[in-house]
């Protein structure tokens, strides 16, 4: 199987780079400089019409959206390595639930927070009451994640899995965006264990954690 990843430093591609490292897969990686706009070249738009990274090209077929890529990596390569639960098991449902929750539900709130906190050059979007509301919803979400992590060291039980990588990546990113993740014992322990992994330090560049 041939794998080619289009990625960029400090981007949504980092968790995918980390997942590939955890799985120990052979993968050609093309690093774009997003500021140069090469992600909008006709050649790349033919692979990913949205002109963003990451895209993983699997035997010539492009797969885009970081969450889809990592769930596919889990299904196709993680099960045999003990990093993703086998389809048909209850743990597989848990992995799909929490990983999708992180990107779709929690991640959507982080996007709104970024707009409400006025992204660079978009001061007209600055909206403090909306930012406060979204922050309070994000903190409530983190409380629920903390409660889940009170049940076991990792999301699926005793062992680290790509479900942890996916969820912890979004939580780590949210901390960069100003969501205070501290003060929750189980969440903090889990986040620290995640950020101490060699794959995190390598992929995210020096282990800049929360
Ligand atoms: N939801 C997408 C987000 C992809 C995305 O927005 N990537 C950004 C980097 S974080 C990008 O490539 N931006 C370049 C651009 O918009 O030109 C995913 O998770 O794959």
From TrEMBL:
Annotated GST N-terminal domain residues: 1-81
InterPro entries named in the record: Glutathione-S-Trfase_C-like, Glutathione-S-Trfase_C_sf, Glutathione_S-Trfase, Glutathione_S-Trfase_N, Thioredoxin-like_sf
Domain GST C-terminal: 88-210
Residues of the signal peptide: none
Domain of life where this protein originates: Bacteria
PANTHER family: GLUTATHIONE S-TRANSFERASE FAMILY PROTEIN, GLUTATHIONE S-TRANSFERASE-RELATED
Name the record gives this protein: Glutathione S-transferase family protein
Lineage: Bacteria, Pseudomonadati, Pseudomonadota, Gammaproteobacteria, Lysobacterales
């Amino acid at each position: 199987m041939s794998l080619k990843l289009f990625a960029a430093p400090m981007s949504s591609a980092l968790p995918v780079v980390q997942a590939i490292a955890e799985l120990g897969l052979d993968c050609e990686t093309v690093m774009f400089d997003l500021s140069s706009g090469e992600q909008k070249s006709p050649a790349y738009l033919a692979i990913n019409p949205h002109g963003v990274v990451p895209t993983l090209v699997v035997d010539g077929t492009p797969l885009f959206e970081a969450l889809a890529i990592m769930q596919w990596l889990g299904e196709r390569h993680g099960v045999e390595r003990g990093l993703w639960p086998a389809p048909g098991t209850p743990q597989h449902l848990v992995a799909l639930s929490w990983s999708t929750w992180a990107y779709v539900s929690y991640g959507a709130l982080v996007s709104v927070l970024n707009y409400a906190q006025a992204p660079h050059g978009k001061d007209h979007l600055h909206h403090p009451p909306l930012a406060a509301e979204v922050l309070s919803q994000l903190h409530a979400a983190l409380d629920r994640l903390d409660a889940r992590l009170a049940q076991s060291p990792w999301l699926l039980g005793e062992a680290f899995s790509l479900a942890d990588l996916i969820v912890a990546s979004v939580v780590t990113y949210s901390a960069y965006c100003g969501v205070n993740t501290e003060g929750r014992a189980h969440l903090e322990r889990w986040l620290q264990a995640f950020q101490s992994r060699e794959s995190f330090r390598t992929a995210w560049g020096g282990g800049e954690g929360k």
